[in-house]
Specification:
This protein is an alpha/beta fold. It has 2 domains: 121 residues, Chitobiase, domain 2, CATH 3.30.379; 263 residues, Alpha-Beta Barrel (TIM Barrel). It has 17 helices and 19 strands. The protein has an 8-stranded parallel beta barrel, surrounded by 6 helices. Strand 2, helix 1 and strand 3 form a beta-alpha-beta unit. The longest helix is centred in the C-terminal third of the chain and has 18 residues. The radius of gyration is 24 Å and the shape is globular. It starts with 9 loop residues before the first strand and ends in a 9-residue tail after the last helix. The mean pLDDT is 97. The structure holds acetamide. Acetamide binds next to loops.
Length: 507
């Protein structure tokens, strides 16, 4: 039985198989040479074969060719015959996606780290036509609540690639830590990347701190390395600098950014906090200088500026005269003004602003893309107003929620209940959407908030297999068959075993 995840658009199984042998070669169009190199390296690791290059397709060759008749960037067409494998794609990205399918057609042992003997490297004869349903197929990792080592960020990016995801949303700053080196403002990491301790247990239990300092950050060299690593897998990184709330680590480093002038520390507890940036021109300039360095590091079109959970208490207390000066009526409008200033700045550098759905309150910045996290309401409103949206509803895509109702058998989580089946059953296009409105839904994304995920192993437990389901919702056609998905997933988990992923076992 084939067990492809995500399920391709069309798959026809045929008699026979292509066998990888020591003599199997790879032939690739020049534009696909980098992908051919990746394929040779991946196949070579498990098989121990060299996969020499040939210039033209012939017997016992895997051939990678550009096919201009394929219209979508990531689409591919795949023919496996007894004598050869033909992978045709519109682009290198399409070839890369097709190769994920090729790997999944091979025995799971192809995901082994070292050479494996005694395996028949058989690729069953098939004919596949495939393309993604959505252009934005993402996962977000919060590296602010708990710092995640660079090696793990790369491992996760590799796992996104395996599931044909193409966006890595990197949550880099929050109240509890600032994780990206900014040359102009060294205290952001010098002070902001470190907290004195971390709250123990669930925040509702109020159990005090653990007394253990926590921190870390990514240098600009680290970031360039990870951006290149993702690009080689045709994954775009969307960095997030969360503002004007969720900025306590920055305010701890530079108190002049805050509203009260008080010296505060990097936050040690979870929850929503009142400390917020002030709305002075100097602070706008500071944040735009930060974004300028961010844009230099991240070449992708989208820059995320957060915008969520900005508590307005301090603005109401300290920003009244600023609001009068700007002619804005209330704190919601001030937030809109703030976000608009960032949106204009990004647009002037040919980038697009993304924010959480709170950026709708007080009026949406022109051209802004909305991530609809508080259910689908925000996404519906934004799409109806002609804005692009990414569906990230907490109900279906918050993988920090519990995976079982028997929570005494689960590691501590933030709460709620989001089992695998619910992640799989998600339909991103709201019912009643016209074709025009649906066209504004760029795609979907799974969220890994790490308040209660102190280390990579724990992130893997929460992410998988729910991200496998999300990958299928994002890529495959909307028809659902959960039993069929689970049958494929059972075999797919063997691949994750070999990749050393500590997923949550199926019930
Ligand atoms: C969020 O969960 N605060 C976007």
């Amino acid at each position: 039985m084939l067990s492809l995840i995500p399920r391709p658009v069309s798959l026809v199984e045929k008699e026979g198989a292509f066998l990888l042998t020591r003599e199997t070669a790879i032939a690739a169009d020049s534009a696909l040479e980098p992908v051919a190199g990746q394929l040779a390296e991946t196949l070579g690791r498990a098989t121990g074969f060299a996969f020499e290059r040939k210039t033209a397709s012939a017997a016992n060759v895997i051939s990678l060719q550009i096919d201009d008749t394929l219209l979508r960037d990531e689409s591919y067409r795949f023919e496996v015959r007894d004598e050869c494998v033909d992978l045709k794609s519109a682009s290198a990205a399409g070839a890369f996606r097709g190769i994920q399918t090729l790997l999944q057609l091979l025995p799971p042992a192809v995901f082994s780290h070292g050479p494996r003997g005694n395996i028949e490297w058989r690729i069953p004869c098939v004919s596949i036509e495939d393309h993604p349903r959505f252009a934005w197929r993402g996962a977000m990792l919060d590296c602010a609540r708990h710092f995640m080592p660079k090696a793990f960020v790369k491992k996760l990016i590799d796992l996104l690639a395996l599931h044909k995801l193409n966006r890595f949303h990197w949550h880099l700053t929050d109240d509890q830590g600032w994780r990206i080196e900014i040359k102009k403002y060294p205290k952001l990491t010098g002070i902001g990347a470190w907290r004195r301790e971390t709250m123990r247990g669930h925040f509702a239990a109020n159990a005090g701190g653990d007394g253990i300092p926590h921190g870390g950050f990514y240098s600009q060299d680290d970031i360039r390395e990870i951006v290149a690593f993702a690009a080689a897998r045709h994954i775009e990184i969307v960095p997030e600098i969360d503002m004007p709330g969720h900025m306590q680590a920055a305010i701890a480093a530079y108190p002049e950014l805050g509203c009260t002038g008080e010296k505060i520390e990097v936050n040690t507890g979870w929850g929503i906090h009142e400390n917020i940036l002030n709305a002075n021109e100097t602070t706008i300039a500071f944040m735009q200088n930060v974004l300028a360095e961010v844009m230099e590091l991240f070449p992708g079109k989208f820059i995320h500026i957060g915008g969520d959970e900005a508590v307005k208490t301090q603005w109401n207390a300290h920003m009244q005269s600023r609001m009068r000066e700007l002619g804005v009526r209330d704190a919601d409008e001030l937030q809109s003004w703030f976000i608009r200033r960032m949106g204009e700045f990004l647009a002037s550098h040919n980038r697009r602003l993304v924010g959480w759905d709170e950026i709708l309150e007080g009026g949406l910045a022109p051209g802004a893309t909305v991530m609809s996290w508080r259910g689908s309401k925000g996404g519906i409103a934004a799409a109806r107003a002609g804005h692009d949206v990414v569906m990230t509803p907490n109900t279906h895509t918050y993988f920090d929620y519990y995976q079982s109702r028997e929570i005494e058998n689960e590691p501590l989580a933030i709460g709620s209940f989001l089992p695998l089946e619910k992640a799989y059953d998600f339909e991103p296009i709201p019912s009643g959407f016209s074709a025009d409105e649906a066209a504004h839904v760029l795609g979907i994304q799974g969220q890994l908030w790490t308040e209660y995920m102190p280390n990579p192993r724990h992130v893997e437990y929460m992410a998988f297999p729910r991200l496998c389901a999300l990958g299928e919702v994002a890529w495959s056609e909307p028809e659902k068959n959960y039993a069929d998905f689970c049958a494929r997933l059972r075999r797919h988990l063997k691949r994750l075993d070999l990749l050393g992923v500590k997923y949550r076992p199926l019930d």
